[in-house]
UniProtKB/TrEMBL annotation, chain A:
Keywords: Antibiotic resistance, ATP-binding, Cell membrane, Membrane, Nucleotide-binding, Translocase, Transport. It is a peripheral membrane protein. GO terms for biological process: daunorubicin transport; doxorubicin transport; response to antibiotic. PANTHER family: ABC TRANSPORTER ATP-BINDING PROTEIN (PTHR42711), DOXORUBICIN RESISTANCE ATP-BINDING PROTEIN DRRA (PTHR42711:SF19). It comes from Streptomyces sparsogenes DSM 40356. This is ABC-type xenobiotic transporter. Its EC number is 7.6.2.2. Coiled coil: none annotated. Residues 10-240 form the ABC transporter domain. GO terms for molecular function: ABC-type xenobiotic transporter activity; ATP binding; ATP hydrolysis activity. It comes from the Bacteria.
Automatic annotation (TrEMBL), chain B:
It comes from Streptomyces sparsogenes DSM 40356. Pfam families: ABC2_membrane. Belongs to the ABC-2 integral membrane protein family. Residues 28-263 form the ABC transmembrane type-2 domain. One of its GO terms (cellular component) is ATP-binding cassette (ABC) transporter complex. One of its GO terms (biological process) is response to antibiotic. This is Transport permease protein. GO terms for molecular function: ABC-type transporter activity. PANTHER family: NODULATION PROTEIN J (PTHR43229).
Length: 324, 266
């Protein structure tokens, strides 16, 4: 803890894990600074959960050197456990206890004492908007409420490093945004968050650094901006009604992909208002009539296509349609 | 070291409170645990008792005219302990499927406390069932001649038996991949008393079975209980019974702990 460089919450070199013949993690290196959000992005089965399980002392790695909050999970699991909190993909609440009892159970296990435990439980119920549900069992909760209770339980022990394994999978957009705000507040309080997700948008919203996990290897790592720059796929799609308009536009924009059948043109673009305006200005100035314009931003499939050459599934670019 | 022990103790108490809350909120399991030996008691005393009592009369109890209930009650009270153990396997197996167990595994708490909380909770539940069954037997005409000290010894032995069977059953529950299999695993524990001297004396059995009945753990336990309650000959059954209980507790505890330390299944 007395190093001159910024303190590291999690470091790893050559982290490996295999189940029999199946290699799940194949030499992972991590370097996560304290007080930041690190997002591990990957499709189902990429090994995200396995990585969380190893770093949170649930399972042992087969090889590699790693430290979580300054301790080796294999040799000093309790020192690591004292510093971390885990909210998994599958809800880790006691379904037979009420929301409040769940929090008090955590308080007891953290040996907070009766009074402090009650204070902390009340504060977390308030903060996570669970006051009304405090006396009910989680069976009656919505998905978002369960996830909030789950995270509140994780926070009872005031962990310095929090693992969030796909915290918003299956949540509606409103609950997802609530969860994002909670994560932002946590980081503002100095906590380090290790977030796994399958949504690029989520990583983009929250993460200081993003790593892409595929086939047991980190295929890319960087800030959201750095990653996006490496990902082609952001483009504006123009549809015309007359072939001559398509022809003129294609000539003007140079290297673009065109589809003569559908009378469409794909112009590379980051989707910024400035780029769109200059595009529309050109169409106006040249009196080229475009029937429809849609902006396509890169998504996880583009990331995988670009980084691994294999799409996770049929690409379904998110599109915002603008009538031109 | 003592600090670690204090933590294990306080964590175990927390886990015990959790399990007792479960039991109080969803009493179905406790009721099932108590109901089984109650049914047995009614069945054996009122349905089979007339016929069985004729065969048992001269050998069991305190004399030829002893009621069959005096012979059978100690064995059926023991069955309350075995059905309690059966419940442990299922409830621990169900709990292991809950996400909260993995949360416990990532917390700086004593791992054994999760198991200890379950086992102690279940033992308390079973002791309640044993008390109910004993009370009912007394109402039905069970007339033990035990002194206060002998009653305390009965309670002590029943507690030892329950602890041993519950640890064994907890291990069985942990070894099973699903609650469905866990409900069948301790069946032998449930039926073993029938192959001993619980219902009828072993002398009435064929040679091979009699040999098994005399050396299986339940027989010395039942003989000791019967001796304490009814004043029959105990001999070395007491020592053997306690040895079985201690041995099974150690085996059950080590087995359960080893299973719980395994990595969670994916």
């Amino acid at each position: 803890m007395t190093t001159s460089r910024p303190a590291r919450a999690i470091t790893a070199t050559g982290l490996r894990k295999a189940y029999g013949e199946q290699v799940v993690l194949d030499g992972i290196d991590l370097d996560i600074r304290e007080g930041t959000v690190f997002s591990l992005l990957g499709p189902n089965g990429a090994g995200k959960t396995t990585m969380v399980q190893i770093l949170s002392t649930l399972i042992r790695a087969d090889g590699g050197e790693f430290r979580v909050a300054g301790h080796d999970p294999a040799r000093e699991p309790d020192a690591v456990r004292a510093a971390i909190g885990v909210t998994g993909q599958f809800s880790a609440v006691d379904n037979l206890l009420t929301g409040e009892e769940n929090l008090l159970l955590m308080a007891d296990l953290h040996r907070l004492g009766r009074r402090e435990g009650r204070r902390r439980a009340a504060e977390l119920l308030e903060r996570f908007d669970l006051v009304e549900a405090a006396g009910k069992t989680p069976a009656t909760y919505s998905g978002g409420m369960r996830r909030r209770l789950d995270l509140a339980m994780t926070l009872v022990g005031e962990p310095r490093v929090i693992f969030l394994d796909e915290p918003t999978t299956g949540l509606d957009p409103r609950s997802r945004h609530t969860m994002w705000q909670i994560v932002r507040d946590l980081v503002a309080g100095g906590v380090t968050v290790f977030l796994t997700t399958q949504y690029l948008e989520e990583a983009d919203e929250l993460a200081d650094r993003i790593a892409v996990l595929n086939g047991g290897k980190l295929v890319a790592e960087g800030t959201a901006e750095e990653l996006k720059r490496r990902i082609p796929g952001g483009h504006v799609r123009l549809r015309f009604t007359r072939p001559e308009d398509l022809e003129r536009a294609a000539r003007a924009f140079g290297e673009v992909s065109r589809d003569d059948e559908a009378l469409t043109l794909q112009v590379p673009s980051d989707g910024s208002v400035r780029e769109l305006r200059s595009l529309l200005d050109w169409l106006d100035a040249e009196s080229v009539e475009a029937e429809e314009l849609s902006v396509h931003t890169p998504d996880l499939d583009d990331v995988f296509f670009a980084l691994t050459g294999t799409p996770t599934q049929q690409p379904q670019p998110t599109a915002r349609k603008v009538n031109a | 070291m003592s600090g670690a022990l204090i933590h294990t103790f306080s964590d175990s108490m927390t886990m015990l409170r959790r399990n007792l809350k479960h039991a109080l909120r969803y009493p179905a399991m406790t009721i099932t645990v108590a109901a089984m030996p109650v049914v047995m008691l009614l069945l054996f005393v009122y349905v089979f008792g007339g016929a069985l009592g004729t065969g048992v009369g001269p050998m069991g109890g305190s004399g030829g005219d002893a009621d069959y209930i005096d012979y059978a009650a100690p064995g059926i009270i023991l069955m309350a302990a075995t059905s309690g153990s059966l419940a442990m396997a299922v409830s621990i197996s169900v709990d292991m499927t809950e996400g909260i167990i993995n949360r416990f595994r990532t917390m700086a708490i004593s791992r054994a406390s999760v198991l200890v909380g379950h086992v102690v909770g279940s033992v308390l539940q079973t002791l309640v069932a044993i008390t109910l069954v004993t009370g009912l037997a007394l109402v039905m005409g069970f007339r033990p001649n035990a002194t206060v000290v002998e009653w305390l010894a009965v309670l002590g032995l029943l507690t030892l038996v329950t602890v041993a069977l519950t640890w064994l059953s907890a291990a069985m529950g942990l070894a099973c991949r699903s609650p469905e299999t866990a409900s069948n695993a301790p069946m032998p524990l449930q039926f073993l008393p029938f192959l001993g001297s619980a219902i009828v004396p072993t002398d009435s059995m064929p040679t091979g079975l009699r040999w098994f009945a005399e050396y299986q753990p339940y027989t010395p336990i039942i003989e000791t209980l019967r001796g304490l309650l009814m004043g029959t000959e105990i001999g070395n059954s007491g020592i053997i019974a306690v040895a079985w209980c201690v041995g099974l507790t150690v085996v059950g505890f080590l087995w359960a702990r080893a299973l719980f330390r395994r990595e969670p299944r994916r």
